[in-house]
Structures are given as C-alpha cells and as structure tokens.
C-alpha cells in the first residue's frame, strides 16, 4: 500500500474505531463475557458451540464436547479444520489436578524421500497437490483423548455432525468468504468439486450446504473406531486416490500412525504459569517472547503505546530466530526446549533488543551454553480442554479423496529441504507445526484455557492475550477484542531469512500517533485486513465458582454456557 493511502486509511479507521459506545468496559469491547456455572463452550461457529453444550447436558465430559465440536467444525468450517488435518490439545483433568498434552500431528510419507525431491528439481515443497500431504492425525487424536477422558460413547458424540452433514446447515458469513476464495484455487483437484461445489460453485452466506460423503465417513468411524479410518476402507480409499493422482501417502503410513502424549511446558509470567506444548509445534515461541517482555514495565508503557508495540515486535523477532533454527520433530532433532524457555537465556536475548530502533536482521541464539480452528470447553466437574485443529492453508492441499467428504492437509509444506537443518524433510517425520493450544494456571490451579488461530500469528496472539489479561487488566472478552498487531517477515523454519526487519500489520483501533512513532523507529507499517487470528477462551473464577467465556469478534463464533 502506498504511504499516502496508508495514512488516509489509518486516519479513517481511527475515526470509526470506537463505535460500540458500551456502558461498561473498554470502548473496543464488542460484547460482555458469557458467565455460567455448569459448563462453557467457545468455538468459531455457533452451531459447533451448541453441539458442545448439548453433549455436556447429556452428561458428556469437556473432552467429549470438544470432540463433538471439532467434528462439527470440520463440517461447518472446512476452511479451517477437518479430519484430513492434525490436532493438538492441552487438558486440565480435575481428578488428578494436572495438565496433559496431546500431540496429534501426522508424519510424512515413508516412500517420499529427500533424494526424490531434489532429483526432480524441487527446492521447496509446494502448498497444494499431492507432495505436501502428510498423515492426518485428527481422528486418532480424538480417540486418544476419548480413551483417557471421555464418558459418552463415540457414536453419540459424532451423531450431531452426521445429522447436520445429511440435513445441511446454513453457511455463516466469514466462513462463506473463505470458502469462496478456496474454490478458485482448489477446484482443479480431483474430488474437490464433487464434495464442496455440487452446484458448480462454493456455497454463499446463508445457503444450506450438505456433505453426505462426510456423513458416511463419520458413521464408519463412529461404528468402527479409529481403525476404521487408519486400517479400514477409508485408509484404502485414501491410498487408492493418492496413487491415482501422483501422491505418496500410503495405507501403511496411515496404519502405523499414532498420536503422542507429551508434557506441556511453561514459564511463569508475573505470577501466572503460561503453558504450551513442546516442538514440533511453535508454542514455546510465546514463552520465549513473554520471558523477554517480563524484563520491561509493560503496564507502565500502556496499551497501544508506541513503546509497548515496539518492544513486543522486537521480542517477537528475537524469539522467531530461534524458532526458525531449532523447532522441529524431536524424534529427529535435539531441540533444547528447557534452555530456550529459561529465564537466563531470555536475559541474554533481551540484550539484543534496541529500545529505540527496529532491528533489520538477527541471528538465532545458542541456548546450549502459519487458517485453523480453535475451541475450548469446560464441564461441571472442573475439566477444561484447550484444543486446536487444522488442515493448514485453510482447506488444505486440495486433494479430496473420492467419496470421503474431506480434504487432506498440506502440512508437509512446512519442511525445509536444506540438508542439516533441524526441520529438513525426512520420511516418517513430523513437520514444523504452527497450531498451538495454550493454558494459564495460577498457584497450580486452572485459570484460562485459550488459543489464537492463524499461522505465525499464533504465538504473537498468545502473548498479546496474556499481556492484555495480566499487564493491562482487561477482562476475557476485552483481551480478545482489543486491536492487535501482526509482525510478518521473520526468519522461518522453512529456510527464509529476515534481512529487512519485516513489516508490521496494524489493526484498526491504534491511534495514528502510535503508528507514526513506530515508523520513526524504523518499522515498516502496513494496514492489512485478516491476519490477526481468531480467539476463544474460558476462564475459571474460583471465588464465585463460575466460568467466563469469550469468543472472537473477528470470526463467526460464539461462547455459550449453561
């Protein structure tokens, strides 16, 4: 965008940024928090939230309701989720009073080698088509979570989505927008039009859309369990489709897949423990950024100030250099997680932050001396689940196995082909992953289950939510409604290097004086629509024994309780 246009846009946005005129709270808040005693669900699509509540009311656990909501989102929001993708979760178990982490990401095809890619002149795994397809981990993740924390049988949990898939549902506004965009690029892939464009076009807002193929697939899973997907007719259909269309994902890749239970990791930020999952995901980047910010008087800087945003941006740049170099599948690479999230390492890295000037380039440290859906559910017994699930790049690779009703993910794009790099492609390896659930505890007790979807925005979003809650004292809804920034252009685990400082996308609501201040400090500021993520959250109020729920105003979602 040209500078004069940016200036005009910013001035116009500043004049309309405070339009709610609410009688309570911050003027950027879109609604009040939802408050309930028995249970709470917050998802990015209202029908999914209602399905989750229905499961809770039938006696299901928070995990049962989360699985039901995720299945529903795969139907109603295929631009962000589906059983062709991966899943991660952090669960607070009321019985054992501890957190559990699930890594449900799939691995690369065993028959696709680095030598093949290089021999065929491929320097970067493409975003679409057969090459980026990795094993979809979602369904196995559901059954792992259910076996450990579920109460209702899986056929009851999946029944609402099966019914909606057959009868149809009206497509909501934001999802319809992204479906329209996806149709243009993915309609060329076999099976996609038959599933998502039965009338020759993607469904519009308010149009009732049906997916009978997905209904059939979910019925098989409900009856036959996870093996129906990974070892039955579904797996054979996936293998057949991939072979016919130049792919490598095989029946054996699916049959040998398994999720992994992992220990969540944390850092303490001003008395609150913020929890993430370790790599191959990017969650610890949020912890690294928070550790750097802890050395500054963020509250004193003030929300929306030039100094706060500059400090946040520079801390993000520093953490993302480590993200680019070290984050990878720990079965293939020695990732120094403990050192990366230590306070001592943060102090060393903090010294790189120039409080007066934007950094153009950085190097990773030496610690050894990327649409998505997010949902959260809580139940009457005190269990809470923070769950994130994705196809990657919205609707995934475009590869849509015949008659199954879903698109296969394209997570393999997140590998680099640079030999010796921690995230270099290898057969049977999990790629670097962007989707990350989060959780906050206070004095060893549950406090907030939350997430912010949106690629590389996610750790940046997590940090902004934590700072809004803890430093700036916002309530749960305000913390998500507050305007955000998104820094783009850092070095990446796929090989790209930051050489020019990147650029800062700024959302409506920040005063022009702040924007001008960032420019004067050397930041390239742009006004961009859409890259600021999607937030859902549930907070436990231990004093009043109630749940607070919040839902992202930038999405179609809803928080609701009973």
Coarse structural class: alpha+beta
**Gross geometry:** globular
Assembly category: single chain
Query: Termini distance?
Result: 46 Å
| Residue runs with pLDDT of under 50 for 5 or more positions | 1-19
What is the percent of helical residues? 25-40%
Care to count the β-strands? 19
Describe this structure in words.
With 562 residues, this protein is α+β, with helices and mostly antiparallel strands. The protein contains 20 helices and 19 strands. It has helices at 3-16, 46-57, 62-76, 114-119, 138-149, 154-167, 173-186, 192-196, 212-224, 226-230, 233-244, 251-255, 283-293, 298-301, 306-326, 337-340, 343-350, 457-470, 476-481, 512-520, and strands spanning 34-36, 40-43, 86-93, 98-104, 169-170, 208-209, 260-262, 265-269, 272-276, 372-378, 384-390, 438-442, 445-453, 485-488, 503-506, 525-526, 534-541, 546-551, 558-561. The strands form four sheets. Strands 1-18-17-13-12-9-8 form a seven-stranded antiparallel beta sheet. Strand 10 and strand 11 (384-390) form a beta hairpin. Helix 13 (283-293) packs across helix 15. Mean pLDDT is 93; it is low at 1-19.
């Amino acid at each position: 965008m040209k500078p004069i246009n940016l200036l005009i846009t910013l001035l116009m946005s500043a004049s309309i940024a405070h339009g709610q005129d609410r009688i309570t709270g911050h003027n950027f808040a879109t609604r009040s928090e939802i408050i309930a005693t028995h249970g709470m669900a917050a998802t990015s699509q209202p029908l999914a939230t209602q399905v989750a509540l229905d499961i809770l009311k039938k006696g299901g656990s928070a995990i049962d309701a989360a699985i039901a909501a995720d299945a529903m989102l795969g139907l109603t929001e295929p631009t962000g989720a589906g059983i062709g993708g991966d899943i991660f979760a952090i669960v607070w178990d009321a019985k054992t009073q501890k957190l559990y982490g699930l890594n449900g990401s799939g691995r690369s095809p065993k028959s696709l080698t680095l030598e093949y890619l290089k021999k065929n002149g491929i320097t970067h795994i493409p975003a679409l088509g057969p090459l980026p397809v990795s094993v979809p981990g979602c369904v196995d993740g559901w059954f792992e979570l259910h076996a450990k924390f579920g109460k209702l049988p899986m056929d009851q949990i999946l029944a609402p989505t099966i019914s909606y898939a057959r009868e149809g549902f009206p497509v909501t506004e934001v999802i319809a927008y992204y479906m329209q965009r996806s149709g243009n690029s993915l309609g060329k892939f076999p099976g996609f039009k038959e599933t998502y464009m039965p009338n020759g076009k993607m469904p519009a807002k308010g149009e009732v859309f049906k997916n009978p193929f997905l209904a059939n697939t979910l019925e098989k899973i409900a009856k036959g369990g996870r093996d129906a997907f990974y070892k039955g007719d579904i797996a054979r259909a996936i293998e057949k489709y991939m072979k016919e269309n130049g792919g490598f994902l095989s029946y054996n890749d699916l049959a040998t897949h398994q999720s992994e239970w992992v220990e969540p990791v944390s850092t303490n930020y001003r008395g609150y423990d913020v929890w993430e999952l370790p790599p191959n995901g990017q969650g610890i980047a949020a912890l690294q950024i928070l550790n750097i910010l802890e050395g500054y008087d963020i509250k004193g800087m003030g929300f929306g100030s030039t100094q706060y945003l500059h400090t946040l941006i520079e801390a993000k740049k520093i953490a993302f250099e480590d993200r680019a170099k070290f984050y990878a599948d720990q079965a293939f690479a020695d990732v120094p997680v403990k050192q990366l999230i230590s306070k001592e390492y943060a102090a060393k890295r903090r010294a790189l932050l120039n409080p007066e000037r934007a950094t153009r380039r950085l190097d990773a440290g030496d610690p050894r001396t990327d649409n998505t859906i997010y949902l959260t559910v809580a139940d009457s017994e005190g269990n809470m689940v923070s769950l994130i699930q994705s196809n990657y790049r919205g609707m995934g690779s475009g590869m849509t196995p015949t008659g199954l009703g879903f698109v296969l993910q394209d997570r393999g794009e997140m590998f680099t082909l640079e030999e010796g790099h921690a995230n270099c492609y290898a057969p049977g390896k999990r790629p670097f992953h962007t989707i990350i659930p989060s959780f906050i505890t206070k004095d060893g007790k549950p406090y907030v289950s939350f997430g912010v979807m949106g690629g590389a925005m996610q750790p940046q979003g997590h940090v902004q939510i934590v700072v809004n809650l803890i430093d700036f004292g916002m309530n749960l809804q305000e913390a998500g409604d507050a305007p955000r920034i998104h820094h783009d252009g850092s070095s990446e685990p796929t090989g790209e290097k930051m050489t020019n400082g990147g650029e800062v996308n700024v959302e409506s609501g920040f005063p022009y004086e702040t924007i001008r201040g960032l420019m004067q400090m050397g930041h390239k500021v742009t006004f961009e629509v859409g890259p600021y993520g999607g937030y859902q959250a549930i907070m436990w109020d231990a004093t009043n024994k109630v749940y607070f729920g919040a839902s992202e105003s930038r999405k179609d979602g809803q928080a609701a309780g009973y």
